[in-house]
Each structure stands twice: as structure tokens, then as C-alpha cells.
From TrEMBL, chain A:
InterPro entries: ABC_transp_permease. The chain crosses the membrane at residues 35-56, 68-86, 116-136, 181-204, 233-252, 258-277, 289-308, 314-333. The lineage of its organism: Bacteria, Bacillati, Actinomycetota, Actinomycetes, Micrococcales. The keyword Cell inner membrane applies. This is Ribonucleotide-diphosphate reductase subunit alpha. It is found in: Cell membrane. Its main location: membrane. It is a multi-pass membrane protein.
From TrEMBL, chain B:
The keyword Cell inner membrane applies. It is found in: Cell membrane. GO terms for cellular component: plasma membrane. Keywords: Cell inner membrane, Cell membrane, Membrane, Transmembrane, Transmembrane helix, Transport. This is Ribose ABC transporter permease.
Length: 347, 339
């Protein structure tokens, strides 16, 4: 009699011990994940900032800071859309071509129908292209990366056909001043990027849509079982990514003043790099808008620093490729930490 | 034989009856599998009808050259895709390998230069393989990163300039013809046959297909998955370098962006040829047909005087259509996604 109670209590003790131990493991893995997620972007950011101010001439001058903020803003806006798509386990390789098409069409409409119509048409074109990606990925069931790899080529063909290979000059001074205007000393594109970023953060963190995105990215099968319309969420994500590329394209056209068919090539790599560097996991389900924003600033600082140091632009390719591989390695370590966390909770 | 099939009452074992389907069914099965060959023939006839100059020997050898550049690289890509992997760094590998050839050619023999190019392809493939296998980065994103790394390296090497190939022997070797067929096309056919044997008849090929269709099962079955993964990236790198060798000969020069966007054409040829993007299945013959088909289509656009930009649109649209059709036919709901 007493033997069995003793055995029972010791079993209960063992179970409790095991629980406490695995909870401890899970807690440790969770904190490691948080550390990786935050340190992955903050450490390089601080390093590059300090190195830039210390070693690069004119890095902190007013015009260069403005320039960096405008570039970072355009990159960050595209990055928000990419964050959303990656969070639902997709990817959008066509952002560069979509942005080029939006920029060129916007430029030509600005010349014929005025700045406001041009901007709206540019954003609309981006959204339309995103919708097309979404339809191919969800209705035709083509994997996202290969669907957008194809549309990357298709959109680039369209933009070259549209421009005929010639540059489009923007005549409207008002349209061009959007990129150079400033509000309280802060460049207007940067303000727009912050506003869109806050909106995206709100939608992902506080609205039902954001919960659906996390659910779909975490486990599409479970999301289907919960009654979430998975294909609708994925479709909307691609749509948002296209629209973001459209906004970026309009701002780019405004910044450059002259656009041609080959602008924004290679943008997809930069956008993916900042999203992953910002802590959004390639495994899906964990969007981090703030990280994307900080990483956009980081990449813009790196590019600007290399330019000011007169490093040939080829090295920027190498820097970008290395940055992406670094970010992906961090992402791999983070995923391992998450796995350990989940294993700790389950056992 | 037909009598035995049609008269099962004559004491023929039913097993044999099942093993020998009617001739119509066999034809239909073959047609169902090789419908692409029909598309190719129809395309050739239609283009030849619209522009008789299509059948000129100069134009035909042009088509074969184009098909073999894409096809050489596509042989490696077939192995990768059959293993459920992907390599977007084709353009980078081709650029680096052909720049290497162009740089060393004035100083060494053609054989040494070729070996160097293939070795460089192997090393770059090894980089991709290690990143995918041991750093555990999704293949398409790891190779997107290395595409820019390799392109950057190529631009740095040449300072953005074009490196000419002055050796006339090298040019005549890479662009010569045997009978009516260009040398690169013969190499392509040999490589495609080799790909078929590797994929269908060797332990390595079976390992590739096994982990292409279900990686976890292959690991649990004790197959050397990691080793095979690295090796297949190396093999693919060598194939890409080989394509670069012939492209450089054809262009008489090498430069950093000589093959930008080439990965699209290569993947399109493989996937349209019938290799499943989900992995587990590959067809070298389909890849040959796919490469020829795209070469004929692009040539047709040129002959018809369509702006060359349409080629971007066409390649992308055909690729999406092929995959969408494949997804519709194989009713498997789960498609290998980006993660």
C-alpha cells in the first residue's frame, strides 16, 4: 500500500521535474531566438553606423543622410510587401520588374495626365501585377517562387516593350519634388515609409488579417482546418506585395526624374535580404515589419558607404550576396532554436 | 501476337493479357507522354510554312547552337530538379567559367583552359551544395545569393570589361560542325544520354530521385542524402561551365553579364520537358525536346520580326502554363513551396 503511494508520488515528482526541465529549456531557446532575431539586424546596424561615421567622409552630411533615407524608404516599402509574402511561406521574385513597370507607366501617365493620376495609376499597376502573381500562385497552383520567377521575366519584357528601350523623361516638376520635399526636415518618402510601416504593423499585429497571416505561414493545413481561407490570404499577400512595389516605383520615378526599362533590376534580392535580415523567418509565420525597416536602413547605409568610398559597384553585388547568406544563416539558427523551444514544450 | 490478345479464350494466361495492352493504348500512352515532341514538330512545320528560310542550313544550325547552350546547362538542371533542388546561379557560373577560359587561353593549351573552366564550375557548384546541404538554406534563395556573388566576382575580375578570345583554334573547335551538326549539339546529345543513364541506371541517380520525392524517407532509409546533394550541385556546376565554354567560343569573348537571365531559359526547358518541379522524377529526353522547342520558338520570333523583348514574355508565360498544366494533371494538392 505505502509502496504504491511512494511510487506514485515519485512518478509525479519525476513528471514535474521533467516538465520544469523542459520548460526551462524552452525558455532558454525562446530567449536565444529573441536574441538572434533582434541582434541579427541591430548588431550589423550599429557596426555599420559607427564605421560609416568614423571612416567614411561626408557620411553624416545632410545631403547624404537625406539620400540614404530616401533610398531606405523605397526599399523598406517594397520590403513590407515581401515580409507579408514570406510570412505566408511564399516569395515574390518579380518585385523588381513590377516596380520598373509601375515606374515607367507612372512616368508616362504623369506626362500625359498629371502627377496625381500618374501616381494612382502606378500604384494600381503594381497592385494588378501582384494580383496576377497571386492568381497564378493560388488558382493555378504554381509554387510561388517559380510563378514569380516567370512573371519577373514577363513583366521585364512588358516594361521593355512599353518603353521600347528608350528612357522616359518626367516633365512635371511637382511630381519630381515629392522625393525631395521634406516634412519638419525629414524627407517625405521616409515619412511615407514610416506611415505605411505603422499601417502594416497594425494590420499584422492587431487585426484579424495579421492573425490569419501568422496561421497560414505557421501551418497552412492547420489554417485550412480552422476555417481560414488560405488562398485568399495568400492572394491578398501577393496583391499587397505588388501594390508596395507600385508605391516604390512611383517614388523611384519621382526620385530619378528619368526612368528606363532596366531600373530596379536585382531589387528582389535586396528586398529578400532586408526581410530575412530583419528577422522574418523563411519558414513562414513570423513577420517582423520593424526588422524589415531597420534592415532597409542598414542596406541603404552600406550602399551609400561603398559609394562614398569609391568602391566599384561590382563590390556591392558581393556585399549584398554575403549579407544575404549571413542573414539566412542567422535564420537557420533561429529556426533551430524555435524547434528546440517547441520540443521543450511538447515533451 | 494480336490474335493472342484478342482471343483470350484460347487458354492464354490472363497475366500475359494484362501485360500486353492493345496497340492503340500503347500509342496513346506514348503520345500522352511525348506530346511535347508533337508540339515541337508542329512548331517547326508551322514556322517553316510561314518563313521558308527557317529550313535554311544556316538558320537550322543557329537553332541547334541556341538549343545546345541552353541544353548543356539544362542537363545539370534536370538532375537538380529531379532531386527537388534548384540552381539560379547558372548565369554567374557561366560568366566566371568563360572569363577564366578567355583569360588563360593566350597562355596555355585549349585542353588546360577547358579543364580549368570545368574545375571552376565544380568549385562554384560545391559552394552552392555546401550552402544548401550544411548551412541549410533553401536552394533557390541560396543560389540567388551566390548568383550575385559569382556575378560580382566576374565583374571584379574583368573590371567590367569584355575579355576577347583571340585563339582561332578555340573558336573553330567550339563552333565547328561534324557533318551537318554543330559540335556543341553533339556534346549536348552525349551529355543528355549520360544524364539519362546517371538518373535512371545508377545508384547516385536513384538516390537523387529518392530524396527528391521524399527527403525524410530517403534519410530514414539510410541513403547518403547529404553527400548526393553536394555532388549533384558539383555535377550541375560542371554542366553550366561546359555551356559557358561553348557560349564563349560562339561569342568570341566573355564578360560578366553574358548570361544574365539564362537561368530562366534553362529551368523553362527542363520543366516544360516534363521534369516535375516537385522532384522525384526527371526526363533527359524531355529536356532535349524542351531545349529545342524554346530555341525554335525564339528563332521563329526573330524570323517573324517580333521585338526581341517578347522572348522574355514568351519564356515566362510558357513556363507558368507548363507548370499549371502539370499541377492540374497530377492532382497532388501539396506543391513544394518556397520554404
Amino acid at each position: 500500500m505505502s509502496d504504491t503511494t511512494l511510487a506514485a508520488t515519485s512518478t509525479a515528482d519525476l513528471v514535474a521535474d521533467e516538465r520544469a526541465r523542459s520548460a526551462e529549456l524552452a525558455r532558454r531557446a525562446d530567449s536565444r531566438r529573441n536574441l538572434l532575431q533582434n541582434a541579427g539586424v541591430m548588431v550589423p546596424f550599429v557596426l555599420v553606423l559607427v564605421a560609416g561615421i568614423a571612416a567614411v567622409p561626408n557620411f553624416a552630411s545632410g545631403s547624404n543622410v537625406t539620400n540614404m533615407l530616401v533610398n531606405a524608404a523605397i526599399l523598406a516599402i517594397v520590403g513590407y510587401g515581401m515580409t507579408l509574402v514570406i510570412a505566408v511561406r511564399g516569395i515574390d521574385l518579380s518585385v523588381g520588374s513590377a516596380q520598373a513597370l509601375a515606374a515607367c507607366i507612372a512616368a508616362s501617365v504623369v506626362n500625359s495626365a498629371g502627377p496625381l493620376v500618374g501616381a494612382v495609376v502606378g500604384i494600381g499597376v503594381g497592385a494588378g501585377l501582384g494580383l496576377l502573381n497571386g492568381v497564378i500562385a493560388t488558382r493555378l497552383r504554381v509554387p510561388g517562387f517559380i510563378a514569380t520567377l516567370s512573371t519577373m521575366s514577363v513583366f521585364r519584357g512588358f516594361v521593355l516593350l512599353f518603353t521600347g528601350g528608350a528612357p522616359i523623361m518626367i516633365a512635371s516638376g511637382g511630381f519630381k519634388s515629392v522625393a525631395t520635399a521634406s516634412v519638419l526636415g525629414i524627407p517625405l518618402p521616409f515619412v511615407i515609409a514610416v506611415v505605411i510601416g505603422v499601417g502594416a504593423w497594425f494590420a499584422l499585429d492587431r487585426m484579424r488579417f495579421g492573425k490569419h497571416v501568422v496561421a497560414v505561414g505557421g501551418s497552412p493545413e492547420a489554417a485550412v482546418d480552422t476555417g481560414i481561407s488560405v488562398s485568399r490570404v495568400i492572394l491578398l499577400s501577393y496583391l499587397a506585395s505588388g501594390a508596395a512595389a507600385g508605391v516604390g516605383g512611383v517614388l523611384l520615378a519621382s526620385q530619378l526624374g528619368v526612368v528606363n526599362g532596366s531600373v530596379a533590376s536585382g531589387l528582389e534580392l535586396q528586398a529578400i535580404a532586408i526581410v530575412v535580415l530583419g528577422g522574418t523567418s523563411m519558414a513562414g509565420g513570423r513577420p517582423r515589419i520593424v526588422g524589415t525597416f531597420v534592415a532597409a536602413l542598414l542596406l541603404s547605409m552600406i550602399n551609400s558607404g561603398l559609394n562614398l568610398l569609391n568602391v566599384p559597384s561590382f563590390y556591392q553585388y558581393v556585399a549584398l550576396g554575403a549579407l544575404l547568406v549571413f542573414a539566412l544563416s542567422i535564420d537557420g539558427a533561429q529556426r533551430a532554436a524555435v524547434r528546440r523551444m517547441l520540443e521543450g514544450r511538447l515533451s | 501476337m494480336t490474335t493472342t490478345v484478342t482471343t483470350p479464350a484460347a487458354g492464354v494466361p490472363s497475366a500475359e493479357q494484362e501485360a500486353r495492352p492493345g496497340i492503340g493504348q500503347v500509342l496513346r500512352q506514348f503520345a500522352g507522354r511525348q506530346y511535347l515532341l508533337g508540339v515541337l514538330v508542329v512548331a517547326c512545320v508551322a514556322v517553316g510554312f510561314a518563313r521558308p528560310s527557317f529550313w535554311g542550313s544556316g538558320n537550322l544550325s543557329n537553332v541547334l547552337f541556341q538549343a545546345s547552350f541552353v541544353g548543356l546547362a539544362a542537363c545539370g538542371m534536370t538532375l537538380l530538379i529531379a532531386a527537388g533542388l534548384l540552381d539560379l546561379s547558372v548565369g554567374g557560373v557561366i560568366a566566371v567559367a568563360s572569363i577564366a577560359v578567355a583569360t588563360v587561353l593566350p597562355h596555355t593549351t585549349i585542353g588546360t583552359a577547358l579543364l580549368l573552366a570545368l574545375a571552376i564550375g565544380a568549385v562554384l557548384g560545391l559552394v552552392n551544395g555546401l550552402l544548401v546541404t550544411y548551412v541549410k538554406i533553401a536552394p533557390f534563395i541560396a543560389t540567388l545569393g551566390t548568383l550575385y556573388l559569382f556575378l560580382g566576382a566576374a565583374f571584379i575580375w574583368t573590371s567590367g570589361k569584355v575579355v576577347p578570345i583571340t585563339s582561332s583554334k578555340y573558336r573553330s573547335f567550339t563552333t565547328g560542325t561534324v557533318g551537318l551538326l554543330p559540335v556543341p549539339f553533339l556534346v549536348f546529345v552525349v551529355l543528355a544520354v549520360g544524364t539519362y543513364f546517371v538518373l535512371q541506371r545508377t545508384y547516385f541517380g536513384r538516390t537523387l530521385r529518392a530524396f527528391g520525392s521524399n527527403e525524410r524517407a530517403a534519410v530514414l532509409a539510410g541513403l547518403p542524402v547529404n553527400r548526393a546533394k553536394v555532388l549533384v550541385f558539383v555535377v550541375a556546376g560542371v554542366c553550366f561551365a561546359l555551356a559557358g565554354v561553348f557560349m564563349a567560343g560562339r561569342l568570341s569573348s566573355a564578360e560578366g553579364n553574358m548570361a544574365t537571365g539564362f537561368e530562366m531559359d534553362v529551368i523553362a526547358a527542363v520543366v516544360v520537358g516534363g521534369t516535375a518541379l516537385r522532384g522525384g522524377r526527371g526526363t533527359a529526353f524531355g529536356t532535349v525536346v524542351g531545349a529545342l522547342l524554346f530555341a525554335v520558338l525564339n528563332n521563329a520570333l526573330n524570323l517573324l520580326g517580333v521585338a526581341s523583348y517578347w522572348q522574355y514574355v514568351l519564356t515566362g508565360a510558357v513556363l507558368v502554363a507548363a507548370i499549371a498544366l502539370g499541377a492540374r494533371r497530377s492532382s497532388a494538392a501539396e506543391v513544394r513551396g518556397a520554404g
